[in-house]
Amino acid sequence: MSDQSATDNSTLSNAQLQWQEDGAPYSPEYADVYFSREGGLAETHHVFLQANDLLGRWQRLDAELQHNGEKAVFVIAELGFGTGLNFLCTWRLWQQAACQHLRLHYISCEKHPLTLSALKKALQQWPELAEWRDKLLPLYPDHTAGYHRLPLTDITLDLYYGDALTTLNMQSNQNTSVDAWFLDGFTPTRNPELWSDSLLDTIGRLCRPGSTLSSYSVTGRVVRYLRELGFGVEKRPGFGSKRQMLFAAYQGQADSVEARQSKESSKPASAIVIGSGLAGATVAHALATRGVKVTVLERQSQTASGASGNRQAVVQLRRNKQQDQLWSFNTHSYLYALRFYQSLANASNNAVHWNPCGVLTLDSAYRNTRGSDSSRDTYEHYSPQILQTVTAAQTQQLGGVSLDEGGTWLPGGGWINPAASCQICMDHPLISTKTDTSVAALQFSENTQRWQLYDDQNNLIAESACVVIANSYSATALQQTGLYPVQPLRGQVSHIPASSTSNQLNSVVCSERYLAPAFDGVHCVGASYVKNSDLSELSETEHQENLEKLGVIASGLDLGKDSPLAGRVAFRGSSLDFMPLIGQVPDPVLPEEQYGSTRHLQTEAPEKRLPGLYMSIGHGSHGTVSCPMAAEHLAALICNEPSPLPKDAADCVDPIRFIRRLRKRRK
């Protein structure tokens, strides 16, 4: 019996399975089993956990880190996620290790992921793994090519869906290394791609001295090539009826703190984040979970006083017409945001008010803004788990009310309370917040290798080797980030009392404005979009415009134009190309300015970055989706960990794109 693909995504196909009499999955495509019939758990322990001496290495390294007063990450990379058995066993062993100063980051490459239903069926064979299985399954994606980051409670799991060679080489943070490799693809004769010289080259490049590798396969060509790459290779007793297995260690020093630093610089012990909205709060949270002590500076008297202070904010997909790098960033940011807010809700008894009620966008939203609804033709490159086209009848069923119009449906979307989300993010013992603190200037001290932060009276506020600028359009007031085209856009949200009809609404509905389900008897409607305005007072004109642009939603839900003026005004920071700016801040002094002219340079001048200075700004009206991903990416760059973004997606939000465009125009 075959398990059919759960997705129509043209770039990803699920595993086609046959189920054996004992309930084990079998791949007819590769003519191979997913785990040993002599005992999957025992095979995993012998070939991967024990062979790589994971428990001993973790505990020794954790003790050394404790002695040195440091924290670090241990990275495992696997070829072939399959049923997730290796991962679940590793996770269980990790909890037994009880490390306090070491974090675990697990990367697994899978070209044909199991469907969720197939994974559930396969993992029923091991009730002893139920505790970990039941935490994995609610977050497990079985669709969409690319990088999927799963924020589990005590471990980070990255699933790379696609060709292993491509996805491993697409990692945007090339400073990271892998500590242990699990080579668990189907046998080399049936799945040669996972055992190619090119892939082994990549594995070698991503190792540090002391990195290890294990596999059930002892194919001669693989053994010889690993030795050529600098691995010491052993053939050890195999599992069950297999006479031998492979173990290899990358030659070099023992796996100590000093050895780990031979290929990567140490992460900072502390950092300063400027801004306490979603951009700043999520960055602070990401750094604190990695053991970095964070100070958040906020110029207002309260945190999340800008656009992040609204009562309700919609979490929805930013759509793209084609499957390119923008699609990659927006789609995976959305998918990660859904998991992130769910994790915040789980950790806080849902103090963030995360409501994954779904987001319904009516056809009129496109007809009114683009003259037609032809854009719906572009939705084929989204998995139906992400985006679905629905009829008017389905609209009523999903939204709970009759709107007599079809549209599109985001089953995973919803709304949050952004201010509460910021507070929960910053409610961490390693995070402290200073309000009424405005940063007017930054200056780097060559002597101390630290950034010094000054107020408008030139008084020193604080200093740190690591600073993250996350204060929206206010970043343009700082010399280091002043050239970036981020402008304030006024947005007014209207607060509308719920009617008896609108109280039945159970999903977010969007036309030219969004309407969120009632929260404490009040709907949020918004938001207006006004350029070149610094007025902070509520506008009756924008209030009426919000209602009018709800169109059929307002009339269908009995929301009258006579609703009293109430709401909130905030200013978003939007970039010139409408994509956020996320990454290490480039040196604003171009080489041609420093040396007079590019004519005097024999080769293309290297792009320089300012040491220890990062930014997360320009999120516009999509910050609820882009900020959590931005935070993980920045934390990965700062702490030298694998990023959740592939290189092409990271490039499209890297602030250096504006430097490159400027240089191109000047040439």
Explain what you see.
The structure is a single chain. With 667 residues, the chain is an alpha/beta fold. The protein folds into 3 domains: 36-260, 3-Layer(aba) Sandwich (Rossmann fold); 270-305 and 420-485 and 577-666, FAD/NAD(P)-binding domain (3-Layer(bba) Sandwich); 359-411 and 487-573, D-Amino Acid Oxidase, Chain A, domain 2 (2-Layer Sandwich), CATH 3.30.9.10. Helices cover 29% and strands 24% of the residues. It has 20 helices and 30 strands. The strands form 6 sheets. Strands 6-7-5-4-8-9-11-10 form an 8-stranded mixed β-sheet. A hairpin with a 5-residue loop joins strand 21 and strand 22 (460-464).
Number of helices: 20
Uncertain parts: 1-10, 370-376, 595-603
- SS-based structural class? alpha/beta
| Morphology call | globular
CATH class of the largest domain: Alpha Beta
CATH superfamily of the largest domain: Vaccinia Virus protein VP39
The N- and C-terminal alpha carbons lie at a distance of: 62 Å
CATH architecture level-2 label of the largest domain: 3-Layer(aba) Sandwich
Count of distinct structural domains:
3
Oligomer: single chain
Strand order of the largest sheet: 6-7-5-4-8-9-11-10
